[in-house]
Design goal:
Helices cover 28% and strands 24% of the residues. With 319 residues, it is α+β, with helices and mostly antiparallel strands. It folds into three domains: 56 residues, no CATH class; 169 residues, no CATH class; 54 residues, no CATH class. The strands form three sheets. Strands 4, 5, 6, 7, 8, 11, 12, 13 and 14 form a nine-stranded mixed beta sheet that branches. It starts with 9 loop residues before the first helix and ends in a 9-residue tail after the last strand. 22% of the residues are buried.
Length: 319
């Protein structure tokens, strides 16, 4: 077995991200527990493969015990919308950066939740048993010599650490929220850019959103799954991509950045390529008619060329 060199080029990291679920050579999909290999062939070309194509790797950067992502990545062509007021759009134009709000600042007290408080004892009992079993049954070659009292104490400590990790995640995770839809949503116009306000929507695709971040591989993009917390729990690793079923009208896809540094800000920014990001800019159907010319002037001022149109959601019907 080749030793692992842990040498990762940017191209190899991108390949790992984009080909996470399948061999990059033969497209065979991985099954949980299989080994995935990252490395380079004889020509130095990056490879991310399964056992099926592992002989092609001459230099092994790393081997992984493969498991699926804790979220679903939409197809590249999926249409995404970001509804915002004019001030936020001006920020995007001026700084060429997309703002990510800290998870505990999104206005939903259930963000990052594992479940309903009334079901917490079920959660605690499950993980106490899980930790106790893990302590009693160490890997081959090791022997557990702890007393039952020591096992229970250590399991309780691990449960507290698990809870602490959830609290830390709220303050170290940053999110940019997008709406998945092939067409405009009048409900979201009214929610984020109500009548008598000036609102803008950016339409992009999942592939273009990823492309807009260029070489920033710290950004994860995935669909939110809506959970009935009365009877279900979010997993330890997937709660960032789980929300209550009562919010499923949002059809949210979120871009996520996890920042474990000492940064304590309420939000962070990530540079984006605006030309790659925006397929079009749509002006709210509730905006005054003069905003189109103002928007054209702003794009010119900031040297950004983007297609602009006014929403026709409120155009007159005939009968």
């Amino acid at each position: 077995m080749q030793p692992m060199t842990h040498r990762f080029t940017l191209e190899l990291r991108k390949l790992e991200r984009d080909s996470h679920d399948a061999c990059s050579v033969c497209a065979k999909r991985f099954q949980e527990g299989e080994t995935a290999y990252s490395g380079y062939d004889a020509n130095g070309t990056p490879l991310y493969v399964g056992v099926c194509c592992s002989p092609r790797i001459i230099e092994t950067a790393a081997r992984y015990w493969w498991s699926p992502r804790p979220y679903e990545v939409p197809p590249q062509t999926t249409s995404l919308w970001r509804y915002m007021d004019l001030a936020k759009f001006l920020y995007l134009l001026r700084d060429k950066s997309l703002y990510f709000a800290r998870l505990d600042q999104l206005g939903d007290s259930w963000e990052g939740a594992k479940g309903a408080r009334r079901n917490k004892q079920i959660w605690d009992d499950h993980y106490l048993r899980f930790f106790q079993d893990a302590i009693r049954n160490p890997p081959e070659g090791y022997k557990c010599e702890k007393t039952q009292a020591e096992i229970e104490a250590e399991a309780s400590h691990l449960l507290k650490q698990l809870e602490l990790g959830g609290s830390i995640e709220l303050r170290t995770t940053y999110v940019s929220c997008w709406h998945e839809n092939e067409v405009e949503s009048e409900a979201l116009w009214r929610l984020y850019c109500p009548p008598n306000s000036v609102g803008i929507a950016i339409r992009t695709t999942c592939g273009d959103l990823k492309l807009a971040f260029d070489e920033d591989l710290s950004v994860e993009i995935g669909r939110v799954e809506y959970v009935d917390f009365r009877t279900e729990f979010a997993g330890v690793n997937d709660s960032i991509f789980r929300k209550r079923k009562s919010l499923q009208h949002e059809q949210e896809v979120r871009a996520v950045v996890r920042d474990r540094s000492e940064n304590k800000s309420l939000g962070i920014s990530r540079p984006v390529n605006l030309t790659a990001l925006a397929k079009e800019v749509v002006i709210s159907p509730f905006a005054p008619v003069w905003i189109e010319s103002i928007l054209g002037d702003l794009l010119q001022r900031y040297a950004v060329s983007l297609p602009v149109r006014v929403s026709d959601l409120l155009s007159e019907p005939f009968f």
